[in-house]
Amino acid sequence: MMKSFLFLAVILFLSSGVYGYTKSEITSWCSQTPHPQPCEHFLGTNPNYGHIKQKPDFVKALLKVTLERAKHAGSHTFTLGPKCRNKHEKAAWADCLELYENTILKINKTVDPYKKCSQVDMQTWLSTALTNLETCRAGFAELGVRDNVWPLMNNNVSYLISNTLAMNKGGNSSYGAPSPKNSMFPNWVKPGVRKLLQSSTPQANVVVAQDGSGPKCRNKHEKAAWADCLELYENTIIKINKTVDPYKKCSQVDMQTWLSTALTNLETCRAGFAELGVRDNVWPLMNNNVSYLISNTLAMNKGGNSSYGAPSPKNSMFPNWVKPGVRKLLQSSTPQANVVVAQDGSGNYKTIGAAISAAAKRSGSGRYVIHVKAGVYKENIEIGTKLKNIMLLGDGIGKTIITGSKSVGGGSTTFKSATLAVVGDGFIGQGITVRNTASPQNHQAVALRSGSDLSVFYQCSFEGYQDTLYVHSNRQFYRECDIYGTVDFIFGNAAVVIQNCNIYARKPPNKTNTLTAQGRTDQNQNTGISIHNCRVTAAPDLQGVSGVKTYLGRPWKQYSRTIFLKSNLDSLIDPAGWMPWSGNFALNTLDYGEYMNTGPGSSTANRVNWKGYHVITSSTEASKFNVGNFISGGSWLPATNVPFTSGRTDQNQNTGISIHNCRVTAAPDLQGVSGVKTYLGRPWKQYSRTIFLKSNLDSLIDPAGWMPWSGNFALNTLDYGEYMNTGPGSSTANRVNWKGYHVITSSTEASKFTVGNFISGGSWLPTTNVPFTSGL
């Protein structure tokens, strides 16, 4: 495996050319970054015959040097295994190896000369890369072992990534053709066609020592942390490679997602050593600059379109990145299984692990359904990076149960404590219960860990105490699931939407519950936890128990982001709503929001007074965190057949009537008839939306233009607009004076309601051969 690690990191560099720049160029450009010192140092040590003339040249230079430093850091980390003194250091170190590898793959994807990837892709993958490095660091801190290995791993990679994220923020990406002027999509998205994501990384031959067999590790704790790092680095390289894969078309959202994953992997690596208290031996030898480099790239890639796919269908229960075939599969009462797992021997395999091993040997990477019949399966399952498009289909919550008991208190890292761990892209879980039965006294004990990009969990249950659901990284969607826990039991740094789920707080050992602990470490990462239309209440063991305070969340990392949208919060929620992590840490930089929640615990009157906390009052702001926008769900969830709500329910619905370049006049039977008043419209519902663009309005239109439905109903909440209409009925001088009515004067605002933008017509109308005008 290590050979693969080095080969993957080097192979793209051989064709990348040399780089390095004049001192004046370096100083000028690096001064614009948040971390100019490492920027100047590493760019200055690379010879080159070219020049940085424009911002895209600088972004490319940052990406290349970031990748080089990430590769160097990953290689260095691998050599630190023998320096681990105990199982805690080894556990944290092992996390870091895996996280660094994934980080390198993410960055590689952004510089692949044969790949067209958007600015959103780049920002996504750089966010992932930076999250990986922070996860690596956190592992040592969690296990209390920061004094030995971790200092030896310190580097500037995080700073370099942060610089790239900052420089790539906003504007158009230099990778790939720009999107059509009036289209909501990058122009590589062909009508009716969207290729499945596939990794083209070379065959890996690096040895991943999950049992902690690194020669420099001194004990089982160091070996455990080190083994985690091997796995995490491998995944990091794969993720960064996806950003530069010459055979893969990736969007800016993809890139930001995968770089966020790479960064999360590195942070998880670090965290493993900390959790097991072995940071003083192997971890310091693994310290490097990869996190900074990923952070730089994330910063440079940030901005542009937030979604790379089509909007979600109006009444769909799923983001539309869920492909139609997968959607059909999930909605089928009896999906066709490739293999069956049954403890009584009536299937192909008796254990889930055996079925997963067999799936790894299958040809191709199409959807592979494993039906797990009812039963209690005492297994720890890991579905690795190469196992794509796996579906675990159970017989229902409480019937098909996967259970384990690993924990930090028992000598595992948080990362490796998961009963079910999923990394391969496109995973789907349905109808299963995943438990971690470790007691609360054993601290972190994960039931499910997902780092699977575009993963879906439908009608599942996750049961544990502290750290039950580890939404580690990448894009994830949970629908109609039950989640049980006590402390930080929904945590991680994925871009995740949890929708129509039940969140149950259990009885804690210390009188305090925290539902979430989001782990965004870089402000340019496109990650966070969005909880939409869920029910938050007490589990049976907490009902009737007094003296327990339950909070919506606390900031695990500097830029922690968690939003509760239109959820029902029961009376167990403390009036303050949110809890600090430690002192004033992150209170000014976090992003916590609440929008139109209901229930006795939803009042925001006595909420915390932090700079980073806000009550969301704008539907536009709230919609940033729905399935369609936050995880680009409209482009991939439809294929899974999992139901989802994409966006604007009530004022959040992305619906309306746009009348463009039309003629409004009297029919023959109305011509010459007097006393008839004709209006452009009236508000049937609370958030009625109608726009007239560049249309010819004849004299039959009443000067008031619009008519109320009943009294003042909806006059403040509707959205009625007119833009550059003509004809005798087009004058707006005597129009209604309602709060919701406006004359549109900006072409930018008007363009939101064109065919290209309002219904994403550029992506599907061409196949109909019906003529259309995409823009104004």
Distinctive features:
Pectate Lyase C-like, eleven-stranded parallel sheet, alpha/beta, cell wall biogenesis/degradation, 17 helices, single chain, hydrolase, eight-stranded parallel sheet, 32 strands, Pectin_lyase_fold/virulence, 776 residues, enzyme inhibitor activity, globular, disordered N terminus
Q: Estimate nothing, just give the exact number of structural domains.
A: 3
The strand count comes to 32
- Can you list the strand order of the major beta sheet? 1-2-5-8-11-14-17-20-23-25-26
Q: CA-to-CA gap between the ends? A: 55 Å
Tell me the radius of gyration.
27 Å
Silhouette: globular
Strand content: 15-25%
Low-confidence stretches: 1-20, 171-209, 304-315, 647-653
Overall pLDDT confidence: 83
Largest sheet: 11 strands, parallel
How much helical structure, as a percent, in the residues? 25-40%
Query: SS-based structural class?
Result: alpha/beta
Helical region count? 17
Main location: secreted
Keywords: Aspartyl esterase, Cell wall, Cell wall biogenesis/degradation, Hydrolase, Secreted, Signal
Protein name: pectinesterase
Active site: 488
